Structure formats: structure tokens, C-alpha cells
Amino acid sequence: MTIASDDARPDAHHRYQAMREFLESMDDTLPGKFEITKEGIVHDMMAPIGPHEMTTLHIRKRLEKVMPEELVAHTGTPDVEAESEGIMRHPDVMVISMEDMDVPGSFDPRTLIAAIEVVSRSNPDNDWVSKVRDYPLLGIPIYVIFDPRTGEGAVLSDIHSTPNGPRYATRKDFVYGEDVTIAEWTISTENLPRYSSQ
Q: 50 FRET partner, CA 20 to 30 A, in 5, 33, 56, 105?
């Protein structure tokens, strides 16, 4: 599914609203995770499996040990949404203050300190391509990717303007076993689970 280009802004708004209403109507009726991107609805059909969920849990716990008490590594709902951009995403982990969580509806993506994704085995391009494009559009200053397929990841930061819109200017790759710094806090990536080769 594809939404209208920026040339048709009012039409794009209506299409976004239609996609949003569709997702609300599908609430809990289909497995997997739904998000809205510039291209349309993304459906990661597979429910998260053990290594994905365990990685998310390890990251959350490790971050919350080193961050100030007023910040959380949130792994639940709601989504982050920028209706003006026609984007609604649901990061696996959102580093955000408790104060900024206390809002009705979706979180304002510009209040996130960082968005963290654990790469899905079934749809890795969603994390490595689409979200690399969407998160700077949303104004999320830091995007971190953990990839249990390869035992590698990347920290993307420093949003800057390009002819194709805002993009991250800095990318720091890491391999599992190294320490990784997310904003001001450094955590270990030791013993993070990997997907099996099957």
C-alpha cells in the first residue's frame, strides 16, 4: 500500500486517517505489529519470539540501572506519532521521561531521548531502512539498532538536513560483547541472545 506524495498534502492527511482507523479496527485481531510509514502500513506478521523479547528486556533493565530515576526505558504502549508526517511507529524500547509519558494518546516523538529497535527476523528492512528514514523525520535524536541475526548493531544520531529530508549524520557500529553508549549512558551488550540459524 502506498500513500500520496507530498504534492497531495490534504489527500495524504485523509489517507493517513483512513490507515489509522483501519489499524484501530484491527486492534488485537491479527498477530504481529502494525505501523504507518511514508509508504503505507507495515505489518510485521510474526509475533516477537524469545530472543527478540529477551533482548528488549535486557536492554531495558541495563539502561534503567544507569539512568536517572525520572527516566524510563519504556517497552509498552502507546505508539509515537507525527500525524503531520503521516507516520506512526512503535519502538521496542523508548527512552523517555515519566513526565513526558503522562499524556493522552500517542507519545510526541520529539520527547523521546532515544528509540531502540531489536531487528525482526521476518522484516529486517523495517528496522535497517524504513526506520532509519522515519525516525529523523519524527525528530527522535538517537536511534539504536540491535540485530540478533548478526550480533551487531548501530547507534545513529546527529540529525541534519539533506535534500531528501532530515537524516542521521553519525553512525557508530558495534558488535555484541562491546559496550554501547546511548545518549549519556553506557551499557554492556554481553550475552544478548541471538536468533538460531534455523
A: 105
